[in-house]
Amino acid sequence: MSDDLLGRHDALLADLDGTLYRGPVAVPGAADAVRGATDRGVPTVYVTNNASRSPADVAAQLAGLGFPAREQDVRTSAQAGAAMLAELVPAGAAVLVVGTASLVDLVRERGLEPVTSGDDADAVIQGHSPDTGWRLLAEATVAVRGGAVWVATNVDLTLPTERGTMPGNGSMVGVVKVATGAEPRIAGKPAARLLTEAQAAVSSSRPLVVGDRLDTDIEGAVAAGAPSLLVMTGVSTARDLVRAAAVRRPTYVGADTSALTRPVDELTPGEKDGWTVRLDEGALVLTGNGADLDALRTLCPVAWGAAGDGEFDGPVRADGSAAADALARLGLA
């Protein structure tokens, strides 16, 4: 077994937006990292909470960006949601689909009958679509209020786009929650189901979850009992990481997916060369000089230890100019 991170795992369960690509552009080095893993016999399952596109469309985009991706390598929250729904209602049940045509197809493939009226629905499945409007949300409200089974493919409040952060499926789910007082069953991350299905798809016993969001990717990994690598190329920031509650703390922290070929000890949160951290009346105090990411890895366990299972809410301070510069670059000043 190799001493690098990749050598400890037999599959990668990789998030997409913010981890492997940003909008239409691959994150620098990500395609090389995934191809390198494939060359070493470690497959990648592309695991996305985005329920708006079919696995075939996702695979085509990935392949166009240089990733070794086939349709069967993609697992979406829409697939997990349709599978969950089929376990909850009988064959032929009427399902109001709040989502795209690909979600309608997945529901139909599970032997269920898509409908357009909440009055007729035995169940509701809700996934992201940029075309979702008031009328369809109103129909979902009618169905859920009437006792229909309700499944959300995911509850991401926001969605990264080329024009900045936009409302995600969780924001639309929130509309129905407010109107009904009900809570949906959740198929995608941070629930474990999507990741455990991805793991089973490649018969993995030693998976590594790779992602950029603490509230979906990392929390999902914790729920699934899998180790995780947080990459700092997307949504979650250094401040988010230092303050993270126990359910959102990654096993490893890397700048990007090139971390897969770095030594495990380098990536594990803990004291690193050049840095020390002390707790002073509830504040983290960083001292020393070295790599910024090593400063972050050194800060984390001290903050987490002080917070227990909850979120660290104290200030972060510097002792010395080098530490002050590092905190500023990390967004922790």
UniProtKB/TrEMBL annotation:
Q: Which residues form a coiled coil?
A: none
Q: Name one Pfam family in it.
A: GNAT_like
Indicate whether Secreted appears among the record's keywords: no
Out of the domains of life, which is the source?
A: Bacteria
Molecular function in Gene Ontology:
phosphatase activity
Q: Which Gene3D superfamilies match?
A: HAD superfamily/HAD-like
The UniProt record lists the GCN5-related N-acetyltransferase-like domain at 273-332
For this UniProt record, the keywords arranged alphabetically read as follows: Hydrolase
* Cellular component GO terms, alphabetical: cytoplasm
The record, for NCBIfam families, names:
HAD-SF-IIA (TIGR01460)
What name appears for this protein in its UniProt entry? HAD superfamily hydrolase (TIGR01450 family)
User: What is the source species?
Assistant: Pseudonocardia endophytica
Provide the organism lineage as a comma list: Bacteria, Bacillati, Actinomycetota, Actinomycetes, Pseudonocardiales
